[in-house]
UniProtKB/TrEMBL annotation:
Native species: Mycobacterium asiaticum
Cofactor field: FAD
Residues of the 2Fe-2S ferredoxin-type domain: 276-357
PANTHER family: NADH OXIDOREDUCTASE HCR, OXIDOREDUCTASE-RELATED
Highest taxon, organism lineage: Bacteria
Stated name of the protein: Ferredoxin reductase
Pfam families registered for this protein in UniProt: FAD_binding_6, Fer2, NAD_binding_1
MF (Gene Ontology): 2 iron, 2 sulfur cluster binding; oxidoreductase activity
Record-annotated FAD-binding FR-type domain positions: 42-146
Keywords, comma-separated and alphabetical: 2Fe-2S, Iron, Iron-sulfur, Metal-binding
Amino acid sequence: MFTQTFTRTFAKRVLSSDLVDLLTGPHGVDRYTELVTPTWTSGEPRAKVIDVRRTTPRSVTLTLAPNDAFTERHRVRAGQFVNVTVEIDGRMHSRCYSPANVEGSNSLELTIGVHDGGLVSTYLYERARRGMVVGLDGVGGDFVMPELRPRRILFVSGGSGITPVMAMLRTLVAEGHSGEIAFVHYARTPKQACYREELAAMPGVRVLHGYTRSGVGDLDGRFDAAHLAAAMEAPDAVFVCGPTPLVDAVKAHCENVFTESFVPPVFEPPANPSGGRVKFADSKIDVEDDGRSLLEQAEAAGLKPENGCRMGICHTCTRRKTSGTVRNLVTGAVSTAPDEKVQICVSVPVGDVDIAL
């Protein structure tokens, strides 16, 4: 163990030295080490797929082994998301996924639901394999449990929203949580219910399933006061993740609700475009503002900027605004200063705008 640790430390110091950086310029040492092992990089967080399971007709579960460039920078708390990048037909695509593993695990477990028309989810469901390497970065999200754990906890999830909830649930069980835990999960059918067997065998957890399209299950219909009463009356804290209608229903019947919705919010662009012009300076493209987000206007102009969540979370689409004013549709914040970085998926022009794209 000492020899392995010494070797890794020595190699890391050598690869990150100024001399090696000079000798491998302009591309950098990572362009050479990745030819030997794709995850052996000093600066780029990556992960190797070490296991693939397709346990339901509409989901795939990947186990990832992150490299040191990721693990040394990031701590993923139960409930947070990571930004995963895959190459499809020569282009890089990024999406946010919430790991389902116990907090502090050396590996990351992602259960990815296939969405109709979803490019990345469909690709991973059909093509993911052991040994595949993906980019891994951008840990974030405030959907986490407090350090002082509530005593009586209710978890509610719908569809692929189960993953951050599973991370919390597994973490509590691993900690030996002494309080009460109940879990309600909604899926279309029993076959599409992820983690069903594991949940059934989980000690000390009351588990209820609702199947919205099969007419069977522990619960009939969608979340309401009766479902709450069946699961846990007056919980100290409720953690819910799923489609917006489910989140809204839980909020209507519960207090102390912590939420996350994996459905992109509906943004309301200005009723009237600013009348200004949008210049994508690097591409020498100049268009009249039509009121949509900068990302949508760039795509309409034939550009293909990198993007991920399209909802202001992953920051993949961040670009430099060289001049002009934009408004963030999520926060309402207005950016007026030159050379500010903005998320073009959720930013709309206010007058003339120049973007480095």
